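Throughout our pipeline, every protein is held as a single compact record rather than as scattered files. Nothing more is needed to write down the fold, since each code stands for a local backbone conformation. For reference, a complete record is included directly beneath this paragraph.
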Amino acid sequence: MTALHNQEHTSQQDIQALTQAVLQDGFCILRQHFSPDTLRSWHQAFTPLLEEHIAREGDLQNRGAARYYVTLPFQAPFADPSIYKDDTILAIAAGLVGEDAVMCQLATDTPLLGSDYQAIHRDAPPLFPEMAQETPPFQLAINFPLVDVTLENGPFEVARGTHLLTKEEGLRRLESGEVELEPITLNLGDVMIRDVRGLHRGTPNRTDIPRPMVVIGYSRRWLFRPEVSIQVPRAALETLSDRARHLLRFNPVVETLEAKTATEIYQSYAY
């Protein structure tokens, strides 16, 4: 597994190595990449959103028991260009899903005490299910936690290299022991970049503290998944840089974020 420890300037060689790791293994990790202080402010703002979500639709349990998917509003502190326009991450994304990539998702996955193992799954169906061969990457998940991720509080588990296989072949290799699920522990500030097709699952949080994991999605410009999007307030749009507008160009523009849907739209998640 390729991991990069934070540097003031990431070299082109580092970016190429990390990009290659995602192509080969399905993921890479950037250690100590984001400011922990910034992420602590995210965590503080996220806590009431999680509580509201559980009160509003917690009975749906669409991610499994005591596990919740919560979309983040595109406003402070979450609409942070130092995060979603990070030069290193965007350079890696460009090498995987193209220079003209789109930012399509800003959300969280949070297991609480009482959560369980998810079924092993992918986060997207194949582009061409009739083919026995996988395509190059078409969507990435940029994951970073808002607390340290340990073996006790629900680490993400992934099977290396299975993004290059059909789901059936990946499951067969897991069953035979040719590949195995690896738990990924992360410290606050670490970032994981992964191909959404890698077979993975969430695991139980055995602690009393929720473990929020942010996901920012970048996809090829032509990929449209209506279950995920970012509502961009018109007032915010007018303040964005040209690069930010370009990343967000296919997302809906709204007059206000006050009007919420009754439930999260992204209900069916496992493929």
